[in-house]
Design goal:
The complex is a heterodimer of chains A (735) and B (288).
Chain A (H helix, E strand, L loop, with lengths): L19 H5 L15 E7 L5 E7 L1 H4 L4 E5 L1 H4 L27 E2 L5 E7 L2 H10 L1 E6 L25 E9 L2 H7 L2 E12 L8 E7 L4 E6 L4 H12 L6 E4 L15 H13 L3 E4 L2 H6 L2 E14 L5 E11 L9 H11 L8 E9 L5 E2 L8 H17 L3 H8 L8 E2 L5 E2 L4 H12 L1 H13 L3 E12 L6 H5 L6 E7 L5 E5 L8 H13 L6 E4 L17 H23 L7 E6 L6 E12 L6 E11 L6 H20 L30 E4 L16 H18 L4 E3 L4 H14 L1
Parallel strand pairs in A: 1-12, 8-27, 10-11, 13-16, 14-15, 21-22, 25-26
Antiparallel strand pairs in A: 1-5, 2-4, 2-6, 3-5, 7-15, 8-13, 9-10, 9-12, 13-14, 17-18, 19-24, 20-21, 20-23, 24-25
Chain B lengths: L6 E3 L4 H10 L4 E4 L5 H6 L7 E4 L9 E4 L2 E5 L4 H6 L1 H6 L2 H6 L5 H6 L2 H7 L5 H8 L3 E6 L2 E6 L4 E3 L2 E2 L6 E7 L6 E9 L6 E11 L5 E9 L6 E2 L1 H7 L6 H12 L12 H19 L5
Parallel strand pairs in B: 1-3, 2-3
Antiparallel strand pairs in B: 4-5, 5-10, 6-7, 6-10, 8-9, 11-12, 12-13, 13-14
Helix pairs in contact in B: 9-10, 10-11
Classes of the chains: A alpha/beta (735), B alpha+beta (288).
């Protein structure tokens, strides 16, 4: 055993990722790599219309095609498969349950209607195209505003409305603050539905062993235990008869965290046909028939003093849930968005008026930084405040951000702000970007008729957040569990409920365990994503779980170390277990500074400079952190400039990557990142950073464009060249 | 996203390819670089009964000099043309334009002939064929025809190539000495199809006035457009912003661009004038 300082140099080092060897040499094992004898491949028949009544499904022709083993419809599932729906329905939320395959009604384009099982995917698609579905089309509700219209047909007749929830919450006394304000600045935001677009789409291999009665489902999921529980409920199987294993995964970015209708159908087919069934979703299905995120409309009034002090926010939010409620209900995220909105600022009064609506579109699901609307609306509104008051937007932030000396400080929404270094990140980012020089360059460029803009965005996020986070949003994330076991060969197996899909947990959690146990990194093996051998939890998400898991792994490793010392010698089978949620503080944050040039004749936006100063406390693996920040920024840039599901009036969204535009290496500028690594508030003060890049980037880019244009009254994303040119025309007309 | 079934044929000579093309004329697609056809197949937007892969036919690729100009074989990969010193010397517009065709990986496979025969209105090469007054050589079992570019692009993704014909070569004439190239394109992302693009060739006479100007626009109509009125206005004029602006307005007027999720028709028409002006400026010695 190599002697290494406890908590020593492994933590904080950019060690090469353990996962990379196999993944980069093509030896990763993704669902697409798995083959089984007698395996059938699946293809789903999907609804061509956004809203309709299914009159008939004729599968005779399809079933007769070569290589086709079966074509299943809802009738085959009836009596054997339970309807799906939300696991937990908040009391003020309207949600309906629905069958795994459409029965009677279809409610969005791409909804699964029938399942074809064939010898190959190509043959399955031939048969899919031979299934005849008769649908009487109904008027679809596509734009979320339409869902407010009571004369429009409800997606679910039994609910009688397309409004799933209306909640008005008041924190402090926003009415009084607005009345007393020197000025009220108004801003409007429309964010379209956007796709997480992971490189690897959904998929699963279902195998049923009739001898043992065990269903094994190998699927790209970031919540193995949750998927198992849902499959058990849907298929009426006890947990000991269902195993879920997550293989290598090609990303999720918010997807893959619940049992989808396709998962249930594929598993049922494997049981029913007695053959392994594999399903590989294609890109069109992922873009059209699965889930998408954002889809928000925010109207905000900011009450300010003439000196730039922000007194209150009044927000009317319209959130689009899509047709079917899946996973965690949208309302939880709406509540989180409101809870986080005051953020690192002295904003003590907030009115949050939220309406969640049902539309005939793909289901809403989380997408990297699902609460990020709070930072977008706040940071862009603050710049509007600055323009209104003729102040530098940086000055408005300096006057309103809570300095460390004033913390801990309660947010009006119930969480405690502690350890937020937002001000320090701001100053660091401005320094790194050369903010004054950028402004000088902007002035020079303006004289030449060139439009340069500088945008700043500051945020903190509760990852994992303070101990009162759960109470503030009415949902407590369960404690993360970890176990460390000493094996006969002297290695240590660390098991966690985390299911990494790009985050590098196999490496970072091993770094923590290795440092604590004074072992070389290659003597630690991190086991993930297997319900047979990992502890239950909510899996990976929210950037909270990883940080919570890091704490649990540290404590579990420490407990194992104590067991070894107590036993006098390292004997195989010794183990340490631990649970952890969060301690004080738990706020990660950063400031993004972005400089752009807007072509005044074409509206094309070029990003000239991009700087991030972030603070997630002590870095476990700096290279991984930088990867997360850069990837997050790329995604945020995408949402600011390019990405749009672009539903047409019939409810058809973009179905290929030629219409749904993702940023490529050519669209993403070099990103300079500085790390503040503030002192931890307690030993387990690991903080998440997976989503912050996205949260800060969209508002930084929007602010930069608004700065170049002299203001944008209604921010409608993405800011395409066409839209930017329109905004420029409007500005010129106003003068 | 699997292709529908088709019959796959891979001839090993041009004669064999032409007789197969004649035999299956009523329902076949030609596979060259595959960068357009394969996505269409996998998206099940095309259902040809037969696919004829001409990748094994010798003699269809390569760039050679011809009468002071160029002869580019239809199977020449974009990347080869982009990097060819002969092309750079005799048709400098080509490398400028090809840099905007997808990305290097796409250009390694996509072919000059394929792009011309596919005739996407937002593609670069059809506009270049038009602005050069190129000649497109098509062959069939019936013989060989030479079609001038002006008559080659018939309508939306429709060319003069008959169902039993193959485009085998594109010929560019010898450049006039002193001709400079200008190329400007606006796209949502680098490498995407153009929202509007312009290719210009300008030659000044010794007194500094415009002796010859050629201007083609793409992405702005069902086919690439040769801006003949603009060219007439430029001839004999002294280069300058006002002259370019007027010519660009002439080029853009009368265009009926498509509207789609990426840009409105009005945006494309408006930006057509901008790219035309900037391409002209580039072709008269000033970088845009």
């Amino acid at each position: 055993m190599t002697t290494v300082e406890r908590g020593g140099p492994l933590v904080g080092r950019s060690v090469r990722r353990v996962e990379d060897g196999r993944i980069l040499t093509g030896r990763g094992r993704f669902v697409g790599d798995l083959l089984r004898e007698g395996m059938l491949e699946a293809a789903f028949v999907r609804s061509p219309v956004a809203h309709g009544v299914v009159r008939s499904i004729d599968t005779a022709q399809a079933r007769a095609l070569p290589g086709v083993a079966a074509v299943l419809t809802h009738q085959d599932l009836e009596g054997a498969v339970e309807d799906l729906g939300l696991g937990f329905v908040p009391p003020d939320f309207l949600a309906a349950r629905y069958p795994a395959l459409a029965a009677g009604k279809v409610r969005h384009v791409g909804e699964p209607i029938a399942l074809v099982l064939a010898r190959s995917r190509a043959l399955a698609e031939d048969a899919r195209d031979a299934v005849e579905v008769e649908v009487d089309a109904l008027e679809p509700v596509v734009a979320p505003e339409e869902a407010l219209d009571p004369t429009k047909p409800p997606a679910f007749e039994e609910l009688g409305t397309n409004v799933a929830r209306r909640a008005v919450r008041t924190f402090g006394d926003p009415g009084a603050a607005l009345a007393a304000a020197d000025r009220v600045v108004h801003a409007l935001f429309r964010l379209p539905r956007v796709s997480a677009a992971p490189m690897e789409t959904r998929g699963g291999l279902a195998e049923y062993d009739a001898a043992t009665g065990v269903l094994a489902y190998t699927s790209g999921t970031r919540n193995a235990h949750g998927l198992r529980a849902a499959l058990c409920a849907a298929l009426r199987l006890p947990p000991e008869r269902v195993d879920v294993v997550a293989p290598d995964m090609g990303g999720a970015f918010g997807q893959k965290n619940f049992a989808s209708r396709e998962d249930v159908c594929v598993c049922f087919a494997a049981i029913s046909l007695g053959r392994p069934v594999r399903w590989l979703e294609d890109r069109a299905e992922n873009l059209v028939g699965y889930v998408s995120g954002r889809g928000e409309r925010f109207e905000v009034d900011v009450a300010v003093g003439d000196d730039g002090t922000v007194l209150a926010l009044d927000v009317r939010a319209l959130l689009d849930q899509g047709a079917y409620a899946v996973a965690a209900p949208l309302s939880i995220f709406g509540t989180s968005t409101a809870a986080i909105l005051p953020n690192a600022y002295r904003i003590d009064h907030l009115r949050w008026d939220e309406t969640d609506v049902i539309t005939n579109t793909a289901s809403w699901s989380s997408l990297r930084g699902p609460w990020a609307g709070e930072t977008l609306l706040r940071e862009v509104a603050l710049d509007a405040v600055a323009r209104e008051l003729s102040l530098d937007p940086v000055e408005v932030r300096r006057r309103n951000l809570v300095p460390l000396e004033e913390q801990p400080r309660p947010l009006p929404t119930g969480m405690t702000l502690e350890g937020s270094t937002a001000l320090a990140c701001l100053e660091r980012a401005l320094d790194l970007a050369g903010y004054d020089a950028l402004r000088a360059e902007q002035r020079r460029a303006r004289e030449e008729g060139r439009l340069l803009g500088v945008g700043v965005a500051t945020y903190v996020e509760p990852t994992p957040g303070p101990p009162d986070y759960g109470a503030a949003i009415g949902f407590e994330w369960p404690e993360e569990k970890a176990e460390a076991v000493l094996e006969a060969d002297g290695t240590v197996t660390v098991s966690t409920s985390q299911v990494p899909h790009g985050q590098g947990h196999e490496t970072t959690l091993a770094q923590i365990a290795a440092a604590e146990l004074e072992l070389p990194l290659d003597r630690i093996r991190v086991v993930v994503g297997d319900t047979r051998v990992t502890p239950a939890g909510l899996g990976t998400g929210g950037s909270r779980a990883s940080s919570m898991a890091a704490g649990a792994v540290l404590h579990a490793s420490r407990a194992l170390g104590e067991e070894i010392r107590r036993a006098g010698a390292p004997s195989p089978g010794l183990r340490g277990t631990a649970s952890f949620r969060s301690g004080r503080g738990g706020w990660s944050g950063g400031t993004h500074v972005c400089a752009v040039e807007v072509d005044p004749e074409t509206g094309v936006v070029s990003i000239l400079r991009y700087v991030v100063a972030e603070d997630c406390g002590k870095l476990i693996n700096p290279a991984i952190v930088e990867g997360q920040v850069r990837g997050g920024v790329a995604m945020g840039i995408g949402m600011a400039l390019l990405e749009d599901a672009a539903y047409d009036e019939d409810g058809n969204p973009a179905s290929t990557l030629m219409d749904y535009l993702l940023p490529t290496a050519m669209e993403v500028p070099p990103i300079e990142v500085a790390h503040l690594e503030s002192e931890p508030l307690h030993e387990l003060d690991y903080r998440g950073v997976g989503e912050g890049g996205t949260i800060g980037a969209t508002p930084a880019v929007v602010n930069a464009i608004a700065d170049a244009l002299g203001g944008i009254d209604e921010v409608e994303l993405p800011l395409t060249p066409s839209r930017v040119l329109e905004l420029l025309d409007r500005r010129r007309a106003d003068r | 996203m699997k292709s529908p079934p088709f019959r796959y044929l891979a001839p090993s000579s041009l004669d064999e390819a032409l007789s197969l093309r004649a035999e299956h004329a009523d329902d076949c697609a030609v596979l060259a670089g595959g960068q357009s056809l394969v996505p269409l197949l996998n998206l099940r937007m095309a259902f040809p009964e037969t696919v004829i892969d001409i990748g094994r036919v010798p003699g269809l690729g390569g760039v050679r000099e011809r009468d002071g100009g160029l002869a580019v074989g239809a199977m020449t990969r974009h990347r080869e043309a982009e990097l060819s010193p002969l092309v750079a010397a005799r048709a400098p517009l080509l490398p400028l334009a090809l840099a905007h065709v997808g990305h290097v990986a796409i250009r390694n496979r996509g072919t000059v002939g394929g792009s011309l025969a596919h005739a996407d209105p937002a593609a670069e090469l059809p506009a270049l064929a038009l602005v050069h007054d190129a000649e497109l050589v098509v062959r069939s079992v019936r013989g060989e025809r030479v079609v001038p570019a002006a008559g080659f692009f018939r309508g939306y993704m429709t060319t003069a190539v008959e169902p039993d014909e193959l485009l085998v070569e594109v010929r560019l004439p010898a450049p006039s000495p002193g001709t400079r190239a200008g190329f400007v394109e606006v796209a949502r992302r680098h490498g995407d199809y153009a929202l509007a693009g312009a290719a210009a060739l300008v030659r000044l006479d010794p007194a500094g006035t415009i002796a010859e100007a050629r201007l083609a626009l793409f992405g702005v109509d069902a086919t690439p457009v040769r801006a003949v009125e603009a060219e007439a206005a430029l001839r004999g004029a002294r280069p300058g912003e006002d002259v370019f602006r007027e010519a660009a307005e002439l080029a853009a007027s009368g265009l009926a661009p498509n509207a789609d999720v990426h840009a409105s028709s009005e945006y494309r028409r408006r930006v057509a004038a901008v790219v035309a002006r900037r391409a002209l400026r580039m072709a008269t010695g000033e970088e845009s």
